[in-house]
Write a structure and sequence with these properties.
This protein is an alpha+beta fold. Helices cover 37% and strands 13% of the residues.
């Protein structure tokens, strides 16, 4: 029971955020043909691309906390019981930390974003989420290299603190797909 209580939130907790990050990344790839080309031609950049997609369009925009004791923070008085919002999305676009904060920079080197929250509040599933995203985005690029967004795109209006796509129509060129065999009915004889 205890193990189930640990594993289930780990697996289920990342589903909406991983799907949201994949939708956000697909929108970014669709809007930037040079980025798409680079990802298709050089899969080795996928590791840094994963971090850049997390930084640029993190599905978790922030996190609220309750102040546990009176404190002074950057000249502001905080009182016990006050609610504060930690804006990861704003920190991830800080121009004093990131040279081109609004771009996906595949040559940036180390990327110290806050998409998974800082220090003790860090997401337990962060490594699993990264692995899931890399598998998803690799399959998406391999199977739909010419896929393009077909507006209208609809974002979830109120998904709490998750910035995600609700409806993302995609146009693609029909044809054989990698790893997909013929339909079951095609092998039957009349």
């Amino acid at each position: 029971e205890e193990l189930s209580g640990i594993v289930m939130p780990l697996l289920l907790g990342g589903m909406d955020t991983t799907a949201g990050r994949t939708g956000n990344a697909f929108l970014r790839i669709d809007a930037d043909p040079a980025l798409r080309r680079r990802l298709l031609e050089d899969p080795a950049v996928l590791e840094i691309a994963t971090e850049e997609f997390l930084r640029r369009d993190t599905p978790v925009q922030g996190l609220t906390r309750v102040v546990t004791r009176d404190a002074q923070f950057h000249g502001r008085q905080l009182k016990k019981g006050d609610r504060v919002m930690l804006m990861f999305a704003a920190a991830n676009r800080d121009p004093s930390t990131f040279a081109c904060p609004h771009d996906i920079d595949l040559d940036c080197g180390t990327n110290r974003h806050l998409a998974f929250a800082p220090v003790v509040h860090r997401c337990l599933g962060s490594n699993f989420a990264r692995a899931m995203f890399r598998v998803m985005i690799t399959a998406l690029l391999r199977r739909l290299p010419d896929g393009h967004v077909a507006p209208p795109v609809e974002r979830l209006a109120d998904a709490g603190d998750v910035y995600t796509v609700k409806h993302l129509p995609v146009r693609l060129t029909p044809g054989p797909r990698e790893g997909v065999g013929p339909p079951a009915c095609a092998s039957r004889t009349a």
